[in-house]
Amino acid sequence: MTVPFSNQENVQEFKELQLVPSDFEEIMEVLIARVKSRLPNKWQDFLTSNFGIELAEVFSYEAAQLVYLINRNVNEVYMPTARTRYGVYNLARNIGYMSRPPAPARTTCLLTIPFDNPNRNNIAIPKYTKLSTQDGKMFYIEKDYILPSGQSQIEVDVVAGTIISDTFIANGIARYPYQTNYYPVSFVESVKVNDSPWEYSEYLDMIGPEMVYTIENDKDFRAKIIFGDGIYGMNPLKDSEIEVLYNVNLGENSNTSAYSINKIVDPIYDTDGRKVNFTITNPNAAIGGDREETVNEIRRNAPSIFRTQWRTVTKQDFKDTLRAEPGIEKLIVLDRYDMDEIGIYGVKIGIIPTEGGYIDDAFKNHILEVLENRRLLTTDIQFIQPEYVPINLDITISKRDNVNAHIVQTRLKAELFNYLNWKNRDFGNDVTAIDLYRIIGNVEGVAFADNLVIEPKKYTYIAKSLKVGRTEKKTIQVIDSMSILKPNMEVVILNNQGETICQNKIDKIQGSSITMKYDMNYDFEYGNNIYPVLTVKNDINEGSKTVAFETDYANLNDTVIYFANKPDKYYTIRFKTINGYYLDEEIKYDVPTGTKVYVMSKDIFSRTEFFHNKGAVSLTFTNTPRFVVGAVLYKESNPDVKYYVKSVENNTAFITPTLVEDVREYEKFIVESDSLNLYKYEIADCGKININIVNA
Question: The pTM is what?
Fold first, then answer.
């Protein structure tokens, strides 16, 4: 399946240049034609056994090889047609672009002193302290920390890889490349000459005789440290000692799961010189590790970054800059033309990391550092959390007589999953019935398909299967499409059959990682539902339409809930009031204070913004409609009267016929449409797929 939306390989293909013929047969034809024209009476035997023909074949073969090399070399001169890493790298370097080496994963770790051995002195935790996982993946602490006396726990930022120190003796040659001993080098941490730190500069020819250096990488990402010539950048004096600290890591293989970093390799001592017996773990997964930039990515990114001139002014500048960063799978940049709440000088950035889900604070800080020296001083950079929209499908298919029903169902589910899975889509990419029917019809064994129902319904679910196995495991990866989860919130996790797996409380949320308060010993699968649990604040009398919760939550509009004492009756929250949340219908029974309320999902439908009189030619909705021209609308309370959408302008849909009855404020309309439109910051994902199979 072709994936046109990925951040990884979306590169336009170019035809290779062909300057001269390179085909063996074509060269033979040219030679024989020349012989016939020049020696018509002397050479008339053109059978393959003729010695002259054998000689011509030798010449044609050698000529074809030479021509191939000529064409190949010419193609390597142009970025669109270059194919070798060496050629593409050098072309990129000529315009000031450094191809991206393997990137290290990052996360935070908790260092804890046992309660029976409290610290009585400040404890210095040095920068570059080495850590490791059980299987030997190396990490180190990114900066210096101090654990004050009397405290038993501290959170530290860690980076995957090993910090290596190489020492060189300066030879006095200007612009001499001092090459690191180990590779691949992700980044150079520092360069010192005779213990004095020198600063990095992208270009030496744009700076005076200062203590600076630049870096060039070869195709294997060995770093070459290059100093100046005394005019553009200083050159270390002969016999000076050059010390280079640099990071070498496993790239995408440095990503690791939560609670996997469990060993402190380098000992840590207190101010009295006593070794401190810390325990260590990473409550959140280490993410952001990525392989080196591919040839296709360099061909795409180098011209884009050159076009930006290493600054971020326009929306496209931000996209081009961040697309070249490691660990980013999907990217969206929004400005004031996309969202009204964004100011003139603001942008909002939505990022899905390579592993999916949401980026954590460490990743956000890294992105801000990348953009800090490129943005305008007045540009306000904010992050917007990507909104996943799980798509539930219901379809009836007839199968061919000679095909097993289970096989057809398995094939079809796999194809529908690929179409809907977020990895194969982009932000704002619509889901259409036409595409779905095309996919279904191409599955072997399917004779006919009908009764397709596309139901977008936001809910919270497990993003990554997890076989726990150990009770100390408390962290799971989730997609919170409702944006409702909070620390200290109680949640219930259900399996894919709707049965309760466990009930727990959230301790911490970092990116997609949800750390629970209590140990768990359960197996989780992708798609398992998570129901947030709320608590009723005041007694509710039968007939009321308002419910108040002990904790105030945002984004509860259109969420579907049920009360623990009546799990078979669902209500939908319409909007928030001064006294609580207003429901779509009266509560049929008394609900006492403290009753648990389970939040199932968030509906996606259109509600009217204000009262509309009978005879009106349009409907204005509370948000931008998700339907297009040709969609059919009808009131939930009156499905017999249907309205057809003639056009859509912002939040208003123009309809035919005119309204046959008054429409009250916040009226719910059902939509029948062949396309589900997503907002620019939303991305579709695969929800529940139900396939009904009948015989053809």
Answer: 0.71
